[in-house]
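Homework help board

Subject: predicted structure for assignment chain

Our instructor gave us this sequence and asked us to write out the predicted structure in token form, then describe one feature. I got the tokens but I'm not sure how to describe them. Can anyone check?
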Amino acid sequence: MAEEKQNWIQSTKDYVESLKAEMRKVSWPNRKQVESTTAVVIVSVFAFAGYFEVVDTVLSAGIKGILNYFSR
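My token output:
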């Protein structure tokens, strides 16, 4: 039981050390890069929302038209 605990503790320490080493290799973006990519994401979200609204409206009107035609 004590050996399992030691293995768990050692494996946890190894994991944390490798995590620290990998985090040192990360290339972090600067503020300007974060702001510009955030702006792109926000604009893209609104563009897709508008697109899906148009598609939803057209499909809804088409399906309602078909249902009204066949329900007479």
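Reply (TA_rk): Your tokens look well-formed. For the description, you could write something like this. The two ends are 77 Å apart (CA to CA). That's the kind of observation they're looking for.
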